[in-house]
Amino acid sequence: MHRTRVKICGLTRIEDVHAAVDAGADAIGLVFYPPSARCVTLERAAELVAAVPPFVSVVGLFVNPAEALVREVLAHVRLHVLQFHGDEHEADCARFARPWLKAARVRAGLDLLEFNASHAGATGILLDAFVEGYGGGGRTFDWSLIPSGLNRRRLILSGGLDADNVTEAVRRVRPWAVDVSSGVEVEKGIKSAEKISAFIAGVRNADG
Ligand SMILES: O=C(O)c1ccccc1NCC(=O)[C@H](O)[C@H](O)COP(=O)(O)O
Fold first, then answer.
1. Could you give the ipTM of this predicted complex?
2. Model's pTM, two decimal places?
3. N-(5'phosphoribosyl) anthranilate isomerase (PRAI) domain: from which residue to which, for each copy (predicted)?
4. For ligand 1, what atom is nearest to the CA of residue 183?
């Protein structure tokens, strides 16, 4: 039986790292995009990573970053996976010799099969809503836009998920993983342990 993996993104507090991993999250996301209210400093990121137990992935999130920024973060923070959430091309993402995710900001007319093929080196494609500010918008997109031919082992469903819609989302899309930020928060960057637990319970409900 497939166990849908879970990434909790946009953490800024150690207690939220503990809440996420204790609830069964497979990955946590740290935002290194300064315009985001969830952006963390290198020092805070290193503190958060130190609180992550073995076998939980740490994902570093960037939006159209300068190469130097990514290299500076990698020099100070133990990231397992890079996530690029802007307009990056494959070469922009692959140059760091780390597993990387490419986010697609989904809207009608975006050919997701072509998008997937143009980022073939990605370890996964994260499908998010097309929102102002690139991501973290708390908005869903039309899941019927996801082509059946998209390899589900590469698909991470994101965008406006929460405990109320994630069971239906997983049952309809059957992604490899789901990703959430706003749906488990009390305010941007401040997560709720109760919402995290309810979200993961909703995922497990769909897994059967
Ligand atoms: O989280 C942010 O502030 C953010 C800002 C700019 C680009 C991406 C961002 N987050 C990336 C994520 O992976 C979020 O989890 C994803 O966009 C879903 O967010 P939400 O709809 O709030 O669950």
1. 0.99
2. 0.98
3. 6-200
4. 23
